[in-house]
Amino acid sequence: MKHILCKILLHNKTHLVVAASFMIIGAYIGYLIWYILDSYLPAAAADNGYVFVSLISVWLCAFWGIYQLPDQLCMNRRIKMVLCYPVEAQTIVSVVAMRIFILQSGICAAFLYPFFLFEAHRRRKAVLALLFCCILTGVLDIGVILFSIFLSRFCACDIVGYAFVVFQYGSFLVLAWLAGNVVFALWGYIAGKSQAVPKEQELHVALWVWAAALLGLTVLIMALRFAAEHWYVRGYLNVQDFRHREAGKRPTTSHITHPYFLLEWKRVTRNKELIFFSNIKNMITVMILSRLLFYNFSQIGLTGTYVEELFLLMSCCSVNTISSTAYSSDDNKSCYAFLPISGQRLFLWKTIQGFLWGEITVFLFWSILICLERLPVLSAFLLLLYGTSMNYVCSWLGVLIDLKMPRTVNSTNELLHGNISKVLVLITATILTVGEIFLSSRKWLPVPLLPFACLAGAGVAAGEICFWRFCKGVFYDTDS
Predict the structure, then answer these.
(1) pTM confidence score
(2) Which spans are transmembrane here (predicted)?
């Protein structure tokens, strides 16, 4: 019965060839990681490589469990069909959890099997590490299931969906933070530079760890049986009510007070590529571009205090996809000529939207700089001011260039839009930044580089605002 129930709930039609292909790929990845650790790390670090691999496998299993378990147990509509039959809630939970746990155990085995096959003196440690990873994965899975049942049962039906969104994405962030901290905390032991515990206490500590893991797993299994029996079905139906609660609701009339803001907000938010994928591409571009600019210009003598930070923030500002595709990605631009829409005000709101979205990237990289370099308060404030002013300068310039560019886009992919505009903005911003650094390095200015860069950026932004205010005819899109 559990086999049939698994097919109904998970709707899995994976072919045997596909499953075998995934197993081969997993085995190859595990072997590749083992080969890299064994070949390129020092001997002391290679001896403890299984610890590092165990951490990676547990992290991947936890990520997969957080992603799959709430969806399969609380959002799966096929469970509603099964509830009409005499099937216990514990059986439903165990079938779904066991299927996901088997996949997670396969991930752990794929990462740890090379230590068992190719290193005979570490086979016992590899087996123990595999068992411990499976136990720890089971503990994490049961914890995720318990918290999911708790949310579904005790959150109101009108907010339970949002609670699950916060839980899943918050768990991803916490998981990433914990993974980094655990690796840093154990790096001395992994690299062979120190011991986790004294040798005379290894057996004692190992017994206590295994006892705690098994005891915790037993307690969580008992708690899961109670929660599945008393809370799961009501919680599941509560989540389903959230998904269908708007079916009979009549839409209310609304009054749009800021139509230009609404037009731009819809343009940006309705295109997931414009927000997520292009921003990920931009972050990678910023990290590469800032290092490249700093290295090349430092070779010709343009050096000084905070030069690298200025190049980093300038790169953040100049690769703003939302501003450099302000008109080319606007599907409504063909309607603007027939509507009483001010081209000047539309240009302003396109600039503001690009500025606000770009400020998120600027603030992110600025925060990383503050955390890594421990800058003085005044310097940190001036860097943020410089990034904000340059963000507006580059957003305004990107929107203007995209407005004046010919409408000859060869691709409908938003990731390819605005590349020429971004290149022109990057060239302009680089010239401005290099000029500021050049004037400061030659001691031709009575003020240091960072305050001068802030003043120059604010001055250019003020000039752009004045140009927008008094040159109204420039901002009408004649190609729409």
Answers:
(1) 0.55
(2) 16-37, 49-70, 91-116, 128-150, 162-187, 207-228, 354-372, 379-399, 419-438, 450-470
Token pair for 30: 């595990």
The single-letter DSSP state of residue 174 is: H
The SS3 assignment for 446 reads coil
Range 382-405 burial, b when 16+ CB lie within 10 A, else e: bbbbbbbbbbbbbbbbbbbbbbeb
277 DSSP 8-state letter: I
Least Cα distance to 450 among 459, 460, 437, 461 occurs for: 437
Q: What is the DSSP letter of 253?
A: P
pLDDT at 442 over 70: yes
- Mapped onto helix, strand or coil, the DSSP state of residue 376 is coil
Rg over alpha carbons for the chain, rounded to the nearest Å, is 29
CB 201 within 8 Å of CB 191:
no
How far apart are the C-alpha atoms of 92 and 83, rounded to whole Å? 9
Name the percent of the chain in helix, strand, coil, to the closest 5.
80, 0, 20
Helices 16-40 and 89-117: angle between axes, nearest 10 degrees: 40
pLDDT in tens, 392-412: 999 999 888 888 876 554 444
Angle between helices 307-318 and 343-373 (to 10 degrees): 140
Please tell me the least confidently modeled range out of 205-209, 280-284, 356-360: 280-284
Q: Which residue has 């591409």 as its token pair?
A: 281
Residue type, 160: V
From residue 207, alpha-carbon distances to 211, 329, 340 in Å are: 6, 62, 77
192: left (phi over 0), alpha (psi -120 to 50) or beta: left
Planar angle of CA 241, 245, 246, nearest 5 degrees: 160
As a whole number of angstroms, the distance between CA 254 and CA 357 comes to 26
Q: For residues 24 and 96, give the distance between their C-alpha atoms in angstroms, rounded to a whole number.
A: 24
* DSSP annotation string for 377-431: HHHHHHHHHHHHHHHHHHHHHHHHHHHHS-S--S---TTTTTHHHHHHHHHHHHH
Neighbours of 221 (CB within 10 A): 12
**pLDDT, tens digit, for every residue of 85-124?**
888 888 888 888 898 999 999 999 999 888 888 887 778 8
Asked if the model's pLDDT at residue 279 lies above 70, the reply is: no
Name the pLDDT band for 302 (thresholds 50, 70, 90): low
Q: Which residues contact 309 (CB under 8 A, 6 or more apart)?
A: 369, 373, 383
Query: Is 135 a residue whose pLDDT tops 70?
Result: yes
CB distance 354 to 326 below 8 Å? yes
